């Protein structure tokens, strides 16, 4: 069914947009109803969408390498920066394999963006993350290392200055240009969040896909604190007084910094954290990530200083479902090991978590589809034997995360909102009163044959802006091409109209409070999930 909604702008005549989302999918599971319209389409893979303090949408285009402001009412676009010249490799996705030898595009391209909280009041800074170099650009063939040793890119983290009058980003200052990159698992989200009252810049970096596909022979370094692969990094928003140019951007109290070497690593053991958000829940500020799992266990984590989130030694919950298995597998017998991958074979998740240490290891607060050991064993065995190199398994492929703290939609306050690539929907998970765990059901909205990449929320909480991929293939479960995909390369606006169920609150406080009985039930649900 095609839904058509009208909106009025005093600058434009009456305009009609049709969006292929059914009436049923615009009615939420708690009775919420929404309208939907296209703000902007035909973008080159919109990757980041942020609602700015200027009441405009700020976006990055992953393959177009452009940063723009969008008027959310009219869709008018102003390009602030074109980074095409900063990219030292061609648009391989547009070049025939017969010409370039099959060279890969990096997963992402121009990715994360974060606006300084004082963007319009004295600190006009915009932070960007993008792939700028490919080690194989000058090589014959695909340019990746032999024996599946990996496709090696380099990532750059840069601060720009925003000139509001000229509508330009200029004066780039490089915070770091030595972050490893790949054609797989680059992560690349940015977030500005406080630690002990001071704001810092956080950056997620994936594990480079090391252990799967074209990187199946590449060493996985998610557990090595000396490497930036498979980490959350922390940087200063402004340089300090250190002598070295790049050391100035690394906080001196980062957990793995030593007297000999500055280190941007904040937390370890991540696979591919494409979602990164901060919120104050229950009086405490926390950083949340959404992360892609392998053949199960897409994760939601609460990030803490110096903590280890297990990958590739513990996948999802520490529940043993990967015992005897690995986070990746191939049928390339020249790669040593039981599963022909550089991912280690997990003899026991419990023992691995114990070896990391109870004070350091952290379980996710939620794991989607923690598939059984029997299911995973069957799947990995099929791939290893060559029987089925593209098996199907239930997963979400979470592409981003936001924390809904507004009161605009009844019952939504203090929820995690997670857009997905594989299943083409927005997931809502209610947090408990402390923000430390998920309670209640997994709720879904706006399901369609599209790949949601990111989302932004208007200040009043009544409008949700979702970015939709232009392209249809990345890797693994998120690479699934939904047949009949609509409105690729779009920013969609979902506007709350009515309905919804406010959370019960017996304490007389703000909406979102939980009774002791509710908390006990939530704990039992969480415990059951971990045992399944």
Automatic annotation (TrEMBL):
Residues 503-532 are annotated as: Disordered. Residues 43-327, 394-471 form the Glucose/Sorbosone dehydrogenase domain. The keyword Methyltransferase does not apply. It holds the Pfam family GSDH. SUPFAM superfamilies: Soluble quinoprotein glucose dehydrogenase. Residues 1-23 form the signal peptide. InterPro entries: 6-blade_b-propeller_TolB-like (IPR011042), Glc/Sorbosone_DH (IPR012938), Quinoprot_gluc/sorb_DH_b-prop (IPR011041). Residues 504-520 have a biased composition (Low complexity). This is Glucose/Sorbosone dehydrogenase domain-containing protein.
